[in-house]
Specification:
The chain has 151 residues and is mainly beta. The protein has two domains: 50 residues, no CATH class; 78 residues, no CATH class. The protein contains one helix and twelve strands. It has a three-stranded antiparallel beta sheet with strand order 3-4-5, with no helix packed on it. The protein has a three-stranded antiparallel beta sheet with strand order 6-10-9. A two-stranded antiparallel sheet has the order 1-2.
Length: 151
C-alpha cells in the first residue's frame, strides 16, 4: 500500500461496510458497522463489529462478527500441572478482584453476553504473552495464548 492505495494484482474484498474504487481507495464507509447480539441465557448484550457479510451454501445472508471488547477468560493455576478455568460459581465470588486486576492495567471488566470481556487499551509486550494448554489431557489439543493480568 502506498498512500491508501494498492497497486498491481487483484484487489482483496474489503471488510464489511467499506467500498473501494478500482485503485483500492476507500470511497465509502458504512455509518453503522457495529451490531449488538443478546445472549438468551443471561439477557446480556455483546457488541460486535461486522467483519464480513457473505452468503451461505443455502443462500442465506451471514455475518462474521468480532467482539468490540477483548474476550477474557479467568483461569486459576493448578501449580505445576497448568491452568484450569474458574467455574461460574467461583467467578461470581471473585468478580470484584477480576475487575480490580483489570483496572490496575487501565481496563474495564464487562459482564457481556456469551463471555466476559475487557474494555480498554489491550496492549502488552510480546514477552508478556504466555502459551496455555488445556489441562483436560486431550491429545492433539492446540495451545492458546493469553496474557496474565495478575497472579
Amino acid at each position: 500500500f502506498a498512500g491508501g492505495t494498492r497497486s498491481g494484482g487483484a484487489m482483496p474484498k474489503p471488510p464489511a461496510g467499506f467500498v473501494l474504487d478500482d485503485q483500492g481507495r476507500c470511497i465509502a464507509a458504512a455509518s453503522k458497522r457495529i451490531v449488538t447480539i443478546i445472549d438468551d441465557a443471561n439477557n446480556r448484550p455483546l457488541e460486535c463489529i461486522i467483519r464480513r457479510v457473505f452468503s451461505s451454501t443455502q443462500d442465506h445472508e451471514c455475518l462474521l462478527l468480532c467482539p468490540v471488547d477483548m474476550p477474557v477468560q479467568v483461569l486459576k493455576s493448578t501449580n505445576f500441572s497448568g491452568w484450569i478455568a474458574v467455574d461460574d460459581d467461583q467467578i461470581k465470588q471473585i468478580i470484584p478482584s477480576v475487575a480490580y486486576a483489570l483496572a490496575r492495567v487501565h481496563m474495564h471488566f464487562v459482564e457481556s453476553g456469551f463471555c466476559y470481556t475487557a474494555r480498554g487499551g489491550f496492549c502488552f509486550p510480546e514477552d508478556a504473552i504466555q502459551e496455555f494448554h488445556d489441562s483436560s489431557g486431550g491429545s492433539g489439543e492446540a495451545p492458546f495464548e493469553g496474557v496474565e493480568i495478575c497472579n
